[in-house]
């Protein structure tokens, strides 16, 4: 297993996908706590809540936002709407309100392009002129726009535990 410090030394940007399991009931309203999830969120410059625009996804994102809000600054949490399409009577402000997080990005619903990339085993970014490739490039640009301003010292999970 590669250490975080080694990844930071090799790459300017690192992303970690961490799932939060949402079950039924419980003291935390159904969120099953994970010390690793909370630790990674605390050490991250930006935390992305990825959700679709359906009510259940936005409700789940709100629960995760509440869970992370106990230890993570709300300004570091951004909402990414996946498979986004305009729905009459449902605005971006409604999505922000439902999820409890500021909207950072919208990923369009490009089922054909994504399924073709999966079936052929080619990265979506290799489809350079597609809307979805431009979207991901734009999100990457947004996430790295203040790289010069934000420089954190390297840390190691093993040094902090």
SSE diagram, text form:
Elements: H1 4-10, H2 35-43, E1 47-51, H3 55-69, E2 77-84, H4 92-99, E3 102-108, H5 111-120, H6 131-143, H7 157-160
Parallel strand pairs: 1-2, 2-3
Q: Any idea what the shape is?
A: globular
What fraction of residues sit in β-strands?
A: 5-15%
Rg over C-alpha atoms, rounded to the nearest angstrom: 17 Å
What is the count of β-strands? 3
End-to-end C-alpha gap: 17 Å
Low-pLDDT regions? 24-29
User: Largest sheet, described in full?
Assistant: 3 strands, parallel
What is the mean predicted local confidence, pLDDT?
A: 78
- The structure class reads alpha/beta
Helix coverage percent of residues? 40-55%
**Strand order, sheet with most strands:** 1-2-3
């Amino acid at each position: 297993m590669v250490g975080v410090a080694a990844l930071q030394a090799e790459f300017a940007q690192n992303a970690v996908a961490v799932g939060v399991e949402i079950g039924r009931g419980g003291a935390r309203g159904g969120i099953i706590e994970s010390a690793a999830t909370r630790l990674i969120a605390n050490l991250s410059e930006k935390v992305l809540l990825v959700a679709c625009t359906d009510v259940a996804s936005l409700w789940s994102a709100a629960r995760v936002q509440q869970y992370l809000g106990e230890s993570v600054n709300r300004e570091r949490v951004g909402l990414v709407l996946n498979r986004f399409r305009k729905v009459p009577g449902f605005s971006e402000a409604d999505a922000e309100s439902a999820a409890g997080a500021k909207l950072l990005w919208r990923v369009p619903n490009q089922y054909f392009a994504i399924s073709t990339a999966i079936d052929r085993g080619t990265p979506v970014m290799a489809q350079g002129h597609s809307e979805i490739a431009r979207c991901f490039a734009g999100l990457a640009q947004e996430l790295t726009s203040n790289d010069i301003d934000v420089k954190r010292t390297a840390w190691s999970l093993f040094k902090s535990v």
